[in-house]
Automatic annotation (TrEMBL):
<keyword id="KW-0808">Transferase</keyword>
<feature type="domain" description="Beta-ketoacyl-[acyl-carrier-protein] synthase III N-terminal">
    <location>
        <begin position="104"/>
        <end position="184"/>
    </location>
</feature>
<dbReference type="InterPro" id="IPR013751">
    <property type="entry name" value="ACP_syn_III_N"/>
</dbReference>
<protein>
    <submittedName>
        <fullName>3-oxoacyl-[acyl-carrier-protein] synthase-3</fullName>
    </submittedName>
</protein>
<dbReference type="GO" id="GO:0004315">
    <property type="term" value="F:3-oxoacyl-[acyl-carrier-protein] synthase activity"/>
</dbReference>
<keyword id="KW-0012">Acyltransferase</keyword>
<dbReference type="Pfam" id="PF08541">
    <property type="entry name" value="ACP_syn_III_C"/>
</dbReference>
<dbReference type="InterPro" id="IPR013747">
    <property type="entry name" value="ACP_syn_III_C"/>
</dbReference>
<dbReference type="GO" id="GO:0044550">
    <property type="term" value="P:secondary metabolite biosynthetic process"/>
</dbReference>
<feature type="domain" description="Beta-ketoacyl-[acyl-carrier-protein] synthase III C-terminal">
    <location>
        <begin position="241"/>
        <end position="328"/>
    </location>
</feature>
<dbReference type="InterPro" id="IPR016039">
    <property type="entry name" value="Thiolase-like"/>
</dbReference>
<dbReference type="Pfam" id="PF08545">
    <property type="entry name" value="ACP_syn_III"/>
</dbReference>
<dbReference type="GO" id="GO:0006633">
    <property type="term" value="P:fatty acid biosynthetic process"/>
</dbReference>
Amino acid sequence: MIGIKQTAIYEPEHIETAKELEYKTGIPEDVIIEKFGLIEKRVANEDEHASDLAIKAGEKILKHVDPDEVDVLIYFGSPHKDYQVWSSAPRIQHHLKLHQAYAFELMNVSSCFPIALKVARDMMRSDDSIRNILLVGGCKESQIIDYDNPRSRFMFNFADGGAAALIGRNEGHEILQSGIITDGSFSEDVYVPAGGTVHPASEYTLEQKMHYIDVPDPQSMKERLDPVSIPNFIKASQIALEKSNLSIDELDWLLPLHTKKSMFDALINQLQLNENQTIYLKRHGHMSALDPCYGLYYLGQQGVKKGDIVLALSAGTGYTWSATAIKW
């Protein structure tokens, strides 16, 4: 059995409230709370970067684990990191003193935590020498939001944080099977326009504010995405559960990414759950791939019973929908 032995999160100190977001966006506070599903979110300090946030979450786990017993470190967090064309995993490995571990990154924006669980499980099943894998992620995506750009409105919930999960053998919450769906027809709908090879950084890209995340044609994306988004969430969930020899009727808890309230309500309705069977991050916002890991951490404070079935569910622009089932 491959299981999740521990989870940890790091929450930046600064809290940005819905009222403060009203001043930034011009969107009324009650709309941000009721429609966006966001009471407040965390924002990292200027000197806290994605790798720092991941390190601070990982340090909490390593208070209880010998670093030399960790054989692999995988970074699964935001692609908006300290530097471009740079892997944060070696820096995190070094600062956490994981001298016996090799390190690498998985990069699939917001869909990556359920995928990271699958990769860690599959690696350990195929390589008996791996004792423990540490998954770590950081997110500072509040920094890439242009609140004056109405095209990026649905991303105003982007926030910051760090998360970590220790994966090991014969104990913890058992990682079951996964369901993953990609539809690459959405691959050019959401991105930061400048800084890559298409639009290298220049005086022009700075003047045009091209270093913030953008949606070139939000109406086109909405018309194509709305009909498939919820169905693909449900399909990925069904695949994960069916491959685990389970049905939706047997699902007890949902750990979703943070979305607008209407999408969250539609998800739990179709998965035959109620809000009390979920962790909805209305006081944290959306932190790239970290959301379901935050959910796992907070789920430990709920009335979860041994044997309960939990689903980590997320989606990332591109577009990929991912789900991994877990047995408590």
